[in-house]
Every structure is written in C-alpha cells, then in structure tokens.
C-alpha cells in the first residue's frame, strides 16, 4: 500500500495562547520546509520588540495559531449547518491557507512593507503587498517540495491563494470561505483573533474580548458568516483592543521613530545589499529575515554600509529625545536634527464605525441584518469619532563616536 503523508497522522503542538493544537499532517509537512521555517526569524511585531522586551514572538507561531483557529471555525460552521457545501478537502485547504497566510512577510513585518512602498513610490515602482508575495512564496515552496505539491490539485492551490487574499480570483466557492482567514468585508477573521490574543499576551497588556464566544455565535446565512446580535458588545471590545494595541505598541512613538530610522538604513544599504530586489526573487527572499540587521552591523569595514550602520546604532543607542506632539514639521532650526513621525489610530475601518458593517442575526431567525449608527448608540457607549492623527517630534541628542562611546551635543 502506498504511503500518503497527508492521510497518515496529525501532530499536536503546545501553544502559549491556544494550548494543545492538533494540525493536519500536510500542514506539518509544509511547516517542515525551509520556506516556512524562515518565519521563525521574523518577529511578529518588528521593532516593537525594541520597546517591549517580551514582544519576541514571531510569525511562525502566529501562523500555527491561525491554522488552528481556522480549522475550528470551518468545522463549527459545518456543525451549525450540515447542508453547507464543505468537504473534508475544503477544510484542509482552509487550514493550509491559514497556515501559509504570512509566508510573504519581509523583515520586521509591516514596517518593511511601508519602507519598500515608500522606496517604490519615490522610484516609480508598483506597490508591493505581502499577500501577493505570500502567493509567490507558496508557489516557490511547492516547487521546491514536490512531495507536498503532489498532494494538492491545481484547483486546491488556486483556492488556497484566494482564501489568503480574501476574494475569489481563480476559484468559485461560497463567499463564507473567503471570510475565515482574511475578511475584507467586515474585518473579522481568525487571523485577527489570533494576533490580538497573541500580541496582547506577549506585550503584557491583556485583552477584553473572547474570540471563542465569537466563534460559537457564528453561522452562515445567505452565503456569508453572520453573528448573534447579542455579541455586538464583544465585537466592540475586539475593535477597541485593536485600537489600544496600535496606540500602546504598534504605533508607539518610539516604535515609529525606530521604523523611520530602519527605513533610512535600508535605503542606504540597498546600494550594496540590493535589499529591495530580494522581494522579487523567492530564493533570495527565503533567507531575507530580521537577520539583515546583523548583516549590516557586522560589516564594519565596508564603507558602503557606513551610513546604514549609523542609523541602526541610532536605534541601539536611542540617539533621539522626544520633543512633543503636533510639532510643526517645517520647524527645522538647522542646529538640531529633527524627525517627525505620524500616527493614525482607528478601529479598523478608518473614520467609520466598523460595527455597522457586521451582519448579525437574531435568535431563531434565518435572515441577517446590520445595526444602524442610531441603534448602536442605543446599545453601546460609543466614542464621538473613530479616527485620530498625532504627529510626534524627535530631536537628535547624541552622536556615536565609536563602539560603546557616546558624545552629548
């Protein structure tokens, strides 16, 4: 009898957030590839780790957690309505998509996406998105690992990619399949549930919403995922948690400064290391991780990387002092080097209330509905606005003379 790894055994992983997670054997095979293992070396929160010392978790563990939740979600929806067109193969594809949804992240996660897009904008290039890079890396992974590719049909691969992107580009399945991992309709998905829970835990901030309750309150109506009306408070807590994490950590003023210095370092080092070309070559991209900082710093004799090393040492030595918020960006006196960093906080839907987009259902009813702003005002204590912008100003306070030596200006 021929041996098929995808039908042999599942494996259990112990996770800090979800406890024991049993993942399909084909997912385990995907995990055990060079292309997937690179995620161990990309921190989930990038340079937030330089402000919050415990935020050292990585994209690898987040992907495992998202895969676990996706499997639970698709099985729950099937249990709620056994007539839904969900096959065992569909369930596996959803789990693989959830596992692989971050394959295309570059070093320092979203900080890099902003840096490369600024570079491309300045040089007339096309916008770069990690979800497209994810699909390219998935193709590369399958090409380099034929034992995995033979377990998947071409239709399966198209379906997996569309789940990752969040829309049916090359597959034609019911809408709810594309709302599980990346929900582009109303921003509620297992990716968000895992990263909010995981980031809150490792940042030491804590969370106030229960994604397990949300899942149990979900079912498919008219082809899309809907939630019980009484769970609206829990969803407000979820979006507020997202806002709070952005304000306290993701867009912490020092993190924004470090991201800007990182961008300057990358742009300077690009002339020598061809950093921004690595995203177009999946073989190069496989080894393009957070370790790029050490690659820049260790080449002390390379004059081409001198300016990049200087910017990275400004991060290490915290060479800038905070001046305040909403300073005038044109206020450059020529005596002190200043950097301005903008932060934009919202609830995930820009200036709009994200709760208005969620399809709900009432007990024993078979039709969905959405809450109006007036109805939400009656049920919840809502903020007067859902978006705010702050500009932070920093001023250079020291310069690095040599390793370990600081000089005050």
What is the secondary structure topology, with strand pairs?
Blueprint: E1 11-15, E2 19-23, H1 25-31, H2 34-37, H3 59-80, H4 88-100, H5 110-122, H6 130-144, H7 146-149, H8 154-165, H9 190-203, H10 211-216, E3 218-221, E4 224-228, H11 232-250, H12 253-273, H13 282-285, H14 292-298, H15 306-316, E5 320-325, E6 338-346, E7 360-361, E8 368-369, H16 373-379, E9 387-396, E10 398-402, E11 405-408
Parallel strand pairs: 4-7
Antiparallel strand pairs: 1-2, 3-4, 5-9, 6-9, 7-8, 10-11
Helix pairs in contact: 3-4, 3-9, 4-8, 5-12, 9-11, 12-15
What do you see in this structure?
The protein is of the alpha+beta class and 409 residues long. The protein has a single domain (9-322), classed as Hypothetical protein af1432 (Orthogonal Bundle), CATH 1.10.3210. The chain is 44% helix and 14% strand. The chain contains 16 helices and eleven strands. The strands form four sheets. The chain has a four-stranded mixed beta sheet with strand order 3-4-7-8. Strands 5-9-6 form a three-stranded antiparallel beta sheet, with helices on one face. It has a two-stranded antiparallel ribbon with strand order 1-2. Strand 3 (218-221) and strand 4 form a beta hairpin. Helix 3 (59-80) crosses helix 9 (190-203), helix 5 crosses helix 12 (253-273) and helix 12 packs antiparallel against helix 15 (306-316). Residues 1-8 have low confidence and may be disordered.
């Amino acid at each position: 009898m021929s041996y098929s790894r995808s039908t042999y055994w599942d494996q259990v992983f112990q996770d800090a957030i979800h406890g024991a997670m049993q993942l399909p054997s084909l997912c385990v095979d995907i995990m055990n590839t060079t292309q997937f293992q690179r995620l161990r070396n990309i921190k989930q929160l990038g340079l937030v780790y330089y402000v919050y010392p415990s935020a050292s978790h990585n994209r690898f563990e987040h992907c495992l957690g998202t895969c676990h939740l996706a499997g639970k979600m698709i099985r729950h929806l099937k249990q709620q309505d056994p007539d839904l067109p969900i096959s065992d193969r569909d369930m596996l594809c959803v789990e693989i998509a959830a596992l692989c949804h971050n394959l295309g992240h570059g070093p320092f996660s979203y900080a890099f996406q902003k840096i490369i897009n600024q570079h491309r904008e300045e040089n007339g290039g096309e916008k770069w998105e990690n979800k497209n890079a994810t699909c390219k890396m998935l193709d590369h992974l399958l090409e380099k690992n034929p034992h995995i590719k033979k377990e998947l049909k071409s239709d399966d691969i198209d379906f997996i990619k569309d789940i990752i992107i969040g829309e049916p580009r090359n597959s034609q399945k019911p809408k709810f399949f594309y709302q599980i991992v990346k929900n582009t309709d109303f921003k509620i998905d297992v990716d968000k549930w895992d990263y909010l829970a995981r980031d809150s835990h490792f940042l030491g901030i804590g969370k106030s919403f229960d994604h397990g309750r949300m899942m149990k309150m979900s079912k498919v109506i008219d082809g899309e995922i809907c939630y019980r009306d009484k769970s609206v408070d829990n969803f407000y807590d979820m979006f507020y948690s997202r806002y709070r994490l952005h304000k306290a950590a993701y867009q912490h003023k020092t993190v924004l400064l470090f991201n800007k210095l990182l961008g300057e370092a990358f742009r300077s080092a690009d002339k020598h290391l061809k950093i921004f070309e690595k995203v177009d070559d999946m073989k190069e991209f496989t080894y393009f991780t957070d370790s790029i900082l050490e690659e820049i710093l260790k080449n002390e004799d390379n004059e081409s990387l001198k300016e990049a090393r200087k910017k990275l040492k400004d991060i290490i030595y915290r060479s800038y002092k905070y001046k305040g918020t909403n300073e005038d960006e044109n206020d450059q006196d020529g005596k002190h080097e200043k950097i301005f960093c903008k932060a934009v906080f919202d609830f995930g839907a820009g200036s709009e209330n994200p709760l208005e987009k969620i399809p709900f259902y009432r007990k024993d009813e078979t039709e969905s509905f959405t809450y109006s702003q007036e109805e939400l005002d009656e049920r919840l204590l809502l903020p007067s606005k859902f978006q705010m912008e702050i500009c932070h100003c920093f001023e250079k306070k020291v310069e690095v003379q040599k390793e370990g030596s600081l000089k005050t200006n």
